[in-house]
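We modelled the chain as a single entity of 205 amino acids. Its sequence is:
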Amino acid sequence: MTTTQQEELSLALTKVLSGNIISLHKHFDEITIVVSSEDSEAAFEILRDHETLCFDTLIDLCGIDYITYGDTSSLAGDPQGKRFAVIYHLMSVALNWRLRVKVFAVDNEFPVVSSVAEIWAAANWFEREAFDLYGIIFTGHPDLRRILTDYGFIGNPFRKDFPLTGNVEMRYDEEQKRVIYQPVSIEPREITPLVIREENYGDSQ
């Protein structure tokens, strides 16, 4: 988007969604707004339906875990200690606008946000992926279940505190003649990268 388009979009968003936006800023040449989880469903309907905005297409949706992220203010406004967020990438085909929307889940232990699957049908599998990988619950989703990991999988592998080796492993048991789950047998270890440099690297010329 050009600078002029960004300015026009910022003005339109501020005018139409003034009561729903927590923060608005530019990042990577794209406008990002933060919307509260309580207001998100109403805000998304306005973003899709209002003639000034017309965000008819959901391009992408993903989860994010801020547990080890230091200062998130430059990217997300102030999350005020909230750990999980859902990021939406929207596009208006008619107006040639793109928008990034971020919604933080209120509860860090049980993250919940409203589903947008009825607003944009493309959100269905995206939300299932965020549920599977981050454990984010999308209320109102028509079929919220795992989509990438197995049904017997324990935990959410994209969470920052998920162990690198996982919690369980799967193997074929000859006696039972079936696949079984068992505790992980791999010992956890610290991974230290090996850095190889050319001889005399860094020497003053």
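As a brief sanity check on the tokenised model: DSSP finds four helices and nine strands in the chain. Confidence is low (pLDDT under 50) at residues 72-78.
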